[in-house]
Amino acid sequence: MLGLLGISLILTVAFFYQLARGELPCPLCLLQRAGFIAIGMGFLFNMQFGERLSHYAMVLIASLVTGVISMRQVSLHLAPGDPGYGSTLLGLHFYTWALIAAVGVICYVALVFVLKDMSGKRDGDVPLHRLASNAVFAIFALLVAANLLSTVLECGAGQCDDNPVRYLLLK
Fold first, then answer.
1. Is the pTM of this model over 0.70?
2. Mean pLDDT per 10-residue run, the chain (171 residues)?
3. Which residues, other chains included, contact 68 with Cβ-Cβ below 8 Å and sequence gap of 6+?
4. Among 5, 138, 160, 170, which residue carries the largest CB count within 10 Å?
């Protein structure tokens, strides 16, 4: 549940900057959001169906892909004097934070594996409070639906603009 809440927080901050500050996500930003949604799905599967290595594998693969996409965007803005894309949060651009978060998720899953191994607990040993898990699921589902809707409004059925300044379907 903690992992899914963390991913929901990441999506909420990105969505807040999009709506409140009018910063539309670029295509690489949208791919990073999709990566975080895939990470969240792995955590969600653990919540709904019990912890399984295949769910953690999904989290790890999605984290690696998200990290690679983030590194690509970071590398695009390494040249001296390049201001980067979008605004910053605590001095770093969101694609840099996405890289840090992707690496953080990988470290988190590794820590979960170590702690589970040390405790001797096996998959499915920890019961979840149904009301809390349903609330976390609802928050994540709402964020996924809102991101999907905003992406369709921004890009329509075609390719997204490299440097979006308006929603394509809201002329």
1. yes
2. 90 90 89 95 90 92 96 90 85 92 94 81 58 83 90 85 81 69
3. none
4. 160
